[in-house]
């Protein structure tokens, strides 16, 4: 197609031209100009598309080359070092909430007052204040406003971040309303939030009511026990689970001591058991601290009749790598051992079975430990399990006394 005639080069109509011809002439002139502009625009777009196609091809080539080239080891070491440095810095930080915030107008005096409160807390925990590197307000805008008698009051003090030279901390009764948490990176907080949400979602999908061999099992369902008793589906009750009442002390002679005011959760719990004629049958400590010492009773077995519980005893905790298959083999081994003892060790057939099961337990134990440690090492998202396992293997553990 030939180029359109520019509007300035168009011929002029004679004066005696009819009006219809003049109108058609103007239309043709406008159409020609518009088509000329469109043609120019199309050429520019085609050239632009060609240049973008060339640039896209070059980028794809560079991307393929980068995929085939392994990352520089120095860069990888640098990134790993920076991550470890950042993680170690966060591990030494503590987030303290619950301390009454200073109302002093002078910022310097306010910082000194907050620092003095934190030093008292650290002294109570047994941490030398010289180990404290920095104390700062983490979120001063965290204060929530509550109107009481048309006056605004602050109910949530600001968080304080404390950077220490070590990462040890411990709760005490003196600061019962003060909570200490580890400072986490954004990725660690997001991962913990994901784990909490996943736990809640899976717990919500659990079967709350199940009957096995005539025994009704109820899991974490409000008023389910009362409804089961009212409907006469069962003639007794046995509640088991973890109850976190550290200030309730049980004694082997049945005596129960509760430390705290009358309206404390521990006293209210004991009053509820007495009012409902229920008995808690575990009278020895079941919570084991990191140093191996036993503190309070965590695992409860509650029933309306203590005679329902025939035997309760404390046993060492199972290893994390222990499987159901190994437990069954250990039971078989114990049974064969008693059978062999009853024959004074003279039954060669039982002795051969016993030795075979023993060798199988040793073999499967080594395999289970190896598989468990490989899973821990490969769990990059949650390294705390690996560190906890390593600490459990140490003879001497770091702690604040």
UniProtKB/TrEMBL annotation:
One of its GO terms (molecular function) is RNA-directed DNA polymerase activity. InterPro entries: Endo/exonu/phosph_ase_sf (IPR036691), Endo/exonuclease/phosphatase (IPR005135). It comes from the Eukaryota. It holds the Pfam family Exo_endo_phos_2. The keyword Iron does not apply. Residues 219-310 form the Endonuclease/exonuclease/phosphatase domain. Keywords: Coiled coil, Nucleotidyltransferase, RNA-directed DNA polymerase, Transferase. The keyword Nucleotidyltransferase applies. Residues 28-69 form a coiled coil. This is RNA-directed DNA polymerase from mobile element jockey-like. It comes from Brachionus plicatilis.
């Amino acid at each position: 197609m030939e180029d359109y005639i520019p509007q300035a080069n168009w011929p002029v109509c004679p004066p005696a031209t009819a009006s219809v011809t003049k109108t058609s002439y103007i239309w043709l002139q406008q159409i020609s100009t518009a088509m000329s502009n469109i043609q120019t625009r199309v050429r520019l777009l085609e050239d632009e598309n060609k240049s973008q196609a060339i640039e896209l091809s070059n980028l794809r080539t560079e991307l393929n080359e980068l995929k085939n080239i392994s990352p520089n080891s120095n860069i990888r070491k640098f990134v790993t070092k920076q991550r470890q440095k950042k993680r170690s810095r966060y591990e030494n930080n503590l987030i303290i909430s619950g301390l009454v915030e200073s109302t002093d107008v002078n910022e310097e005096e306010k910082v000194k007052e907050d620092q003095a409160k934190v030093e008292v807390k650290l002294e109570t925990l047994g941490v030398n204040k010289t180990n404290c590197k920095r104390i700062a307000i983490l979120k001063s805008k965290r204060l929530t406003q509550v109107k009481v008698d048309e006056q605004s009051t602050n109910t949530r003090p600001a968080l304080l971040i404390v950077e220490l030279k070590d990462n040890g901390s411990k709760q005490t009764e003196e600061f019962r309303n003060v909570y200490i948490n580890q400072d986490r990176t954004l990725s660690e907080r997001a991962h913990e939030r994901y784990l909490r949400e996943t736990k809640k979602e899976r717990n919500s999908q659990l079967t709350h009511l199940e009957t096995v061999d005539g025994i009704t099992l109820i899991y974490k369902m409000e008023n389910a026990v009362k409804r089961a008793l009212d409907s006469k589906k069962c003639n007794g009750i046995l509640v088991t689970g973890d109850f976190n009442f550290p200030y309730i002390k049980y004694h082997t002679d049945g005596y129960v001591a509760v430390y705290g005011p009358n309206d404390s959760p521990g006293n209210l719990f004991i009053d509820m058991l007495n009012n409902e004629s229920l008995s808690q049958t575990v009278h020895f400590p079941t919570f084991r601290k990191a140093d191996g010492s036993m503190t309070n009773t965590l695992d409860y077995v509650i029933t309306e009749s203590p005679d329902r519980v025939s035997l309760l005893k404390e046993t060492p905790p199972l290893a994390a790598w222990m499987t159901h298959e190994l437990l069954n083999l250990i039971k078989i081994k114990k049974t064969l051992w008693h059978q062999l003892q009853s024959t004074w060790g003279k039954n060669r057939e039982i002795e051969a079975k016993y030795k075979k099961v023993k060798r199988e337990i040793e073999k499967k134990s080594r395999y289970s430990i190896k598989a468990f440690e490989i899973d821990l090492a490969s769990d990059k998202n949650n390294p705390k399990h690996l560190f906890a396992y390593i600490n459990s293997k140490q003879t001497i553990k770091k702690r604040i006394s």
